[in-house]
Design goal:
about 280 residues, alpha/beta, 2-enoyl-CoA Hydratase, Chain A, domain 1, 6-stranded mixed β-sheet, 3-stranded mixed β-sheet
């Protein structure tokens, strides 16, 4: 494997077919949850892929039983600044780099969702150009469950995929869905049996890799203008998510998960004023 990927130590790399790179998120003991290093690497790896002349299509998947269980909150405190402004800026840069890196990459990305995809892991799964889920994979946004706004991808892309009614139902209710249900709601491109997932992803990747590269790149670029139009929505949702992590609701939600008890929240905050309410 090229030295260009040596610094990306949270992943495994292989070439399962000519022109196809497979990236495997490799923290199986943590269900591939993102520590600070993986978060940063997911924000920067797509530029390296774009610069690799041996790659035309990328498959991203997870080692072990999970795709990616979102953020690894158990070990993150030692990796981030105590200064809330610096912490916000770094988190915003990484989360934005992850999402828009996938959107703006010139080369198609296929997610092979082999198991649980939660939070930021679900962002990787759904922002991929083609998303293929195991029928039994569990997809779960989970942001409001941990006391923060759904900010790392959902407000930008879910309404385009499954409509606003379904978007608000799943994001507000925190109801998980299987890969099979996600296909039915148009949240993923395809759902297949678990034992067919990697073969199906490779079959599609190979087909695209042998299609005219410029035509493929320009098609992706043009279609993804739908997502670029939604960048202001993404930026707002991400900022609100990160602000939420500094608040009491997130602290209580995370504590309740660690202590295996229902969360207890205080009075609801006053919603922000609508422009028409400001005199």
């Amino acid at each position: 494997m090229s030295d260009r990927y040596a610094k990306f130590d949270r992943f495994l790399f292989d070439h399962p077919a000519p022109w196809v790179l497979r990236i495997t998120m490799n923290r199986p003991e943590k269900m591939n949850a993102m520590d600070w290093a993986m978060d940063h690497q997911l924000a920067t790896i797509w530029a390296a892929v774009d610069a690799d002349p041996a790659v035309r299509v990328t498959i991203i998947t997870g080692a072990g039983k999970a795709f990616c269980a979102g953020g690894d909150f158990s070990g993150i405190s030692g990796d981030v600044s105590a200064d809330p402004v610096e912490r916000f800026n770094t988190s915003f840069k990484n989360a934005r780099g992850l999402a828009m890196g996938i959107v703006n990459s010139r080369k198609p990305i296929i997610s092979a969702i082999n198991g649980a995809a939660v939070g930021a892991g679900l962002a990787v799964a759904l922002l991929a150009d083609i998303s293929i889920a195991s029928k039994t994979a569990k997809l779960f946004d989970g942001h409001t469950r941990i006391g923060v706004a759904a900010g790392d991808h959902a407000a930008m892309i879910w309404p385009l995929l499954c409509g606003i009614a379904k978007t608000k139902y799943f994001l507000l209710s925190n109801e998980p869905m299987t890969g099979e249900e996600a296909e039915r709601h148009n949240l993923v491109s395809l759902a297949v049996d678990a034992d067919q997932l990697q073969d199906r992803a490779l079959e599609i990747a190979t087909r695209i890799a042998n299609t005219a590269p410029s035509a493929v790149a320009y098609t992706k670029y043009a279609v993804n203008h739908w997502l670029r139009q939604a960048e202001p929505i993404f930026d707002l949702s991400l900022a609100l998510e990160l602000i939420g992590f500094e608040g009491a609701e997130a602290r209580e939600a995370l504590a309740s998960i660690g202590e295996k008890r229902p969360p207890v929240f205080g009075a609801a905050p006053t919603p922000p004023e609508s422009p028409q309410d400001i005199k």
